[in-house]
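Entry
Fold in token form

___
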Amino acid sequence: MQKSKIVFNSIMAIAQVVIVGVVYLVLYKYLLNTIGIELLGVWSLIIASTSLALIANFGISTSIIKFVATYHARSDIESLKKLLFTSSVFIILTYSFISIVLLFLGNSILPYFIEPKYLSIALEILPFSLISLIINALGGVISSSLDGIQKNYIKSYILSFTAVLLFLLSVLLTPNYGLKGLVFAQIAQGIVVLIASLFFLNNYLQGVVSLRWNWSKKLFKEIINYGLKMQALSIMQMSFEPITKGLLSKFGGLSMVGYYEMASRLVTQLRSLIVSANQVVIPVVAGAKETNEGYVKELYIKSFSIVLFFDILLITGVIIFAPLVSYLWIGKLIPFFVFVVILNSVVVFINILSNPAYFSYLGEGKLNWLIYSYFAISILNPLLGFLLGSVYNGYGVVIAWNVSFLVSSIIILQSYHKLNSIALKTVLGKQDFVFICVASPLASFGCLSLYRYLLNYTVDFIFITIFTLCFIVFVALLIKNKNFKTLLQHAKQIVARK
């Protein structure tokens, strides 16, 4: 029963990512054609700037999953009521305070990153972006509670529907209100997520949602004690995107910020196909810590094997089709866009492999190594970004971010294996290693062949020959892969039931 629940939640998480990804793909294409790449860059910088309000989160949005899972495993409904109320009140108050501070600081901060001719537009949408942030923060707490009771699929339904709603409202409002219309659409999306999450949570946990004052000092301390470490992660994490985009704007201009936003969004959304499916193990691990601790290591090894298989398929495909995506999405071949997609994808390959360890750390409540890994990014990203950006402009900034992200991912992966006595050969077999070795030239020559053809319509037969040979070997290895066989077996069982 537990296994089927994890599988179903994982499938719905993947479906959600696909739907949201397609929506954003179409939305960015629409915005590119209607408001242009510079205003898209302005919007991206405002979103990054308002994310500084995450300082008010104290790690609650993530830690709520663990606490809800723990109290739900104990069948302690009263504590769940107090936990939900206490977390919600705290989020509303702290986010509101920080947003007011950011609103007053906007006139001083934004001129450093936004060109003068776009500054008035940025300042105009800033208050509405902060309102959207507060609503989304509260909605994040409530929807994460659905994850905690392993109703992840309900959250997936909600986020998928509201993503479509965001696109429709953006198309409706942007022509008349410009960027402000886009932010209005985000506010409406956040409100719907909040109301729907409250409805379904109360439906599965009768009476858990109440306006009656139910503050718990004891639970608040418990949340904060755990949340302080999560907050340390949040504070560092919230600096990653603003620093990268700020340096990009300084050394490359708003156009580079816009193209980076599109490229990084593409890779991040595709990464979420695997990460979101893997994330459902957090409440499972938290519950296992209460009932069957030996299951945690077993779950990690199984998760890693499955994640590796899909990671190879995903990143290989992304790299091969990066030039084609640029041509179809933007309307022309943009070398910087293709560069960002490829480099981000290579590093994301390692990062995805570190995610089973990351989510196991969260589920077990062991956060020290996650803090160390984020601290590495916090130091390396601005330092390398400034140094490399000064020499190689926007390309240097992107390289700096990816080096930082790679170091962080390796720290998480290596530390978890060492702490749990997991040898590399336990999770990375000979078959997996050969699969990676074949996928690498397949992705490289596939990408190069497409790039050269789209650049000047020339066909490089040497590249295509190497690509074809690698593809044949790749398919042969895919068919022999144990995870592919298991997936095929499950598919046949589903078809047989119908």
In short: The mean pLDDT is 83. Residues 380 and 404 are 6 Å apart (CA to CA).
